[in-house]
Specification:
Elements lengths: L1 E6 L4 H12 L4 E8 L3 H11 L3 E4 L2 H11 L5 E4 L1 H8 L6 E4 L7 H9 L3 E4 L3 H17 L2 E4 L2 H8 L15 E8 L9 H5 L3 H4 L9 H9 L1 H13 L7 E5 L5 E7 L4 E5 L5 H9 L13 H4 L14 H11 L3 H17 L7 H12 L8 H22 L1
Parallel strand pairs: 1-2, 1-5, 2-3, 3-4, 5-6, 6-7, 8-9
Antiparallel strand pairs: 8-10, 10-11
Helix pairs in contact: 2-3, 4-5, 5-6, 6-11, 6-15, 10-15, 11-14, 14-15, 15-16, 15-17, 16-17
Length: about 400
Amino acid sequence: MRGVALLGATGSIGDSTLAVLALHPDQYRLEVAAARRNVRRMLDICRQFRPPVAVLTDPEAAAELRRALGDGPTRVLTGAAALEQVVRAAEVDVVVAGIVGAAGLASSLAAAEAGKTLLLANKEALVMAGPLFMAAVQRGGATLIPIDSETNAMFQCLPGYRCGEPATEHGVRRLLLTASGGPFLRASAADMAGVTPDEACAHPRWVMGRKISVDSATLMNKGLEVIESAWLFALPGSAIEVVVHPQSVVHSLVEYCDGSVLAQLASPDMRVPIAHALAWPRRHRSGAGTLSLFDVARLDFEPPDRSRFPCLDLAYQALATGGTAGAVLNAANEVAVQAFLDGRLGFTGIAVVVDHTLNALPAAPADSLDAILAADGAARRIALAKVTAQC
């Protein structure tokens, strides 16, 4: 039995992880379920899986959950520091890092430093703090496995690989990172200016949270994955190419120096990469449907339209700049996406805010967590001021 700490338990990654855990009760036990404030969903999780510990970082939500659970087997903790505490517990073997955005950085770092098997969905941890994060993985002796469908696909196409090793030493020439293109793949620039949050969140292939759905619609999510991949596989941005693949069946590809290209195919279901990472280096059932090539019938690929999706180039720019530029990019994007979801910013304004913030805040050395968090805070202030100016 392996003890699992599930961070972001009430989100889409949490739902998929719990579905896989439920298939294998003889192999995994849920030791920790953590989220921000969704009391109703957390109550359901605690009643079904009976974890010894639940964490809600919002104190009022934690108090409500504590009252609802009464004298049950689950102890309820609160506060951001509790996340770092629980991932270090001896009972926890595997940490699923599913907290979206900068909020998940500290707990993911703590899991790496504690030498856990870390299933990373929180790509922002590497975007913000790539050098620090990978150093923590090495120092702690952690096993890092990405569970974003695309980065997990590339990991699957590299048998025997351990994240952080130079992929070129395994014969890799380049990584081909697939993108569905999102809901506005064929939309004109004029049409995109007036889209609503609900339209941006209506992803044609995946069921995801609203923030990551908007990132998919702008292609910022793919830009974040480019930066994530650069750190996971120790490659420069020039060796990572984004390819639009509307069917979302080929989840990514790895091209080797001998001309071979390996691809990982599966139905668009997050249970597949999560089950792979949980069982690695073995495999077990995910609960996802099998892929029928006859139903798929065809696979299309095309380059992204960088003029209509400028967020992609902004991510490549931040990767090339280095230092705190990744933290600035991520912070500005989080502010801009939230403003769009709140109806305070137009869809195309997201890239404008991010571009402005990157230019307004020069990159500094990202040599400490304090430096990264300082850049994150400064970027949020600049981005918020730009949002206010555009309203």
